[in-house]
Design a protein that fits this description.
It contains 8 helices and no strands. By secondary structure, the protein is mainly α.
C-alpha cells in the first residue's frame, strides 16, 4: 500500500478545521412547519454533510431508510405524511449513531413515547455531546498522526505510517462500538444483577517470566 504523507497530512488538517466549526442544529433551529419526505431527505443531507457519500456502503439518508425507521418504531410516525421538529431530531440522532450502532441497539438507546419536552432535552444534550466528541476525536487524531503531521511524538501511539494510522482507527472504532453495546446492556441492572465485575485476565496470553 502506498500513500502520499503530504496529501494525508493536508486532508487531516482540512477535516480537523471542518469538525472544529461543525455543529448539529439545536432543537430550536429545526424547522417545525411539517415537511414532506423529499424535503426531509434534502434537509438531513445538508445537516449531515460531514458524512461523505463516497465512504458509505449505502446512503445514510434515503426515503426508504426513513420509512424503515418508522416501521421498526425507532422514531415517531409522520403526521399525515408530514415530518415535524421531533421527527427531524430523531432522524439526526439515528443517522449519526447508525454509523457505529445496530438498529436493535438504537431502539434501546432512543426510547419512543417520550413527551416532546423530554425529547427536546435529550436531543439538545446529544448535540452538545456530539460536538464535544468531535473535539475529543480531533485531538486524538492529532496525537495518533503526530509523525504524519510533523509533531513531536507525544506517545508510543503516535505514528508516521499511514497504514498504522488506518489500523489504529479501525481498532479504536471497534472498541468504541463494543463499549457502547456493553454499557447499554447494564440499563436497570445493579451490582447484584449486573454480572461479575471481577477483573478478567485475557485468555491465551503468553506468560512472561519476571
Amino acid at each position: 500500500m502506498s500513500y502520499d504523507k503530504a496529501l494525508i497530512a493536508g486532508k487531516l488538517r482540512r477535516w480537523e478545521t471542518y469538525l472544529k466549526n461543525y455543529r448539529l442544529p439545536y432543537w430550536e433551529d429545526l424547522p417545525n412547519l411539517g415537511l414532506y419526505m423529499e424535503q426531509v431527505v434534502s434537509l438531513l443531507k445538508r445537516y449531515l454533510d460531514y458524512m461523505p457519500p463516497e465512504l458509505q456502503e449505502e446512503e445514510v439518508v434515503t426515503a426508504a431508510a426513513i420509512n424503515n425507521y418508522v416501521r421498526k418504531k425507532i422514531m415517531p410516525e409522520p403526521v399525515k405524511k408530514k415530518y415535524f421538529r421531533i421527527h427531524i431530531a430523531y432522524l439526526i440522532m439515528i443517522c449519526t449513531l447508525k454509523q457505529s450502532l445496530s438498529i436493535p441497539t438504537l431502539q434501546a438507546l432512543l426510547p419512543m413515547g417520550l413527551p416532546e419536552k423530554q425529547v427536546q432535552a435529550r436531543y439538545d444534550a446529544y448535540v452538545r455531546r456530539h460536538h464535544a466528541a468531535a473535539e475529543f476525536f480531533t485531538q486524538q487524531v492529532r496525537l495518533a498522526a503526530g509523525g504524519i503531521l510533523g509533531h513531536d511524538a507525544a506517545s508510543d501511539f503516535s505514528t508516521d505510517d499511514p497504514v498504522e494510522l488506518i489500523t489504529s482507527s479501525a481498532v479504536i472504532g471497534g472498541f468504541s462500538r463494543l463499549l457502547a453495546q456493553k454499557l447499554l446492556l447494564l440499563e436497570g441492572k445493579t451490582l447484584e444483577t449486573g454480572g461479575s465485575i471481577e477483573i478478567r485476565t485475557p485468555k491465551n496470553q503468553p506468560e512472561h517470566n519476571a
